[in-house]
Specification:
8 helices; 42% helix; alpha+beta
Length: 209
């Protein structure tokens, strides 16, 4: 008996094992009066595989009697994939000020608690991940190299930026900051994941150290 797409995901714990048509079938969830979900998914993929950027809601809804609800599900999935995999829709970190364009960095600027964000970069220095990895008290943050590098390993990052705020408004690294920096540099050498910037964000400014 052929294993169904959802059964494959349950067995393996990942959707990577599915074909493109199977992914579409899972998103659709069900077929219609004319086609079962697998035939419908196959026809959608064959028709629009090279035209995902241009297809409209009305056109997709009419295709094979999909209907607007099913068409909207597919359009949302297509758009999410487009945003994730098109580098031009992400932020390239060419200079340290570019980090201020990231939502997570803007969020921690005025926080009253010290927070640390790891920004993962690909080989082109495009931000592919933003992870809040430590949340401390007003004057204390605990950090471990494992917490810093796990997000980078998961995203297969080429390098990272480590950014934290100073609730006091001070723009100078503390003694603890410098100790942590030395520790993380040693870990980065072992893991072969570069650290592009260590940075402090405060008010509307950012500086490296």
């Amino acid at each position: 008996m052929k294993e169904l797409p959802r059964e494959k995901i349950l067995r393996t714990g990942t959707a990577e094992v599915l074909s493109n048509e199977e992914l579409i079938a899972v998103i659709l969830g069900k077929g219609n009066l004319k086609y079962n979900v697998f035939k419908l998914a196959k026809r959608v993929w064959q028709k629009y595989r090279d035209n995902l950027d241009a297809v409209s809601l009305d056109e997709l809804a009419l295709f094979c009697n999909l209907g607007k609800v099913q068409a909207m599900k597919l359009l949302c999935a297509f758009e999410l994939g487009k945003r994730i995999y098109k580098p031009e829709l992400r932020i390239k970190i060419k200079k340290i000020q570019d980090l201020l364009l990231l939502h997570s960095i803007r969020e921690i600027r005025l926080s009253r608690k010290e927070q640390i964000v790891v920004v993962s970069l690909n080989a082109q220095n495009v931000a592919i991940g933003e992870d809040l990895i430590s949340l401390g008290t007003v004057d204390e943050t605990l950090i471990h190299p494992r917490e810093v590098f796990v997000p980078a390993i998961k995203t297969k990052a080429s390098s990272i930026c480590i950014v934290h705020n100073h609730p006091s408004g001070c723009n100078e690294p503390s003694e603890e900051d410098l100790i942590v920096k030395k520790c993380l540099i040693e870990a980065s050498k072992i893991l072969k994941i570069g650290i592009k910037y260590f940075a402090i964000v405060y008010e509307d400014k950012i500086r490296k150290y």
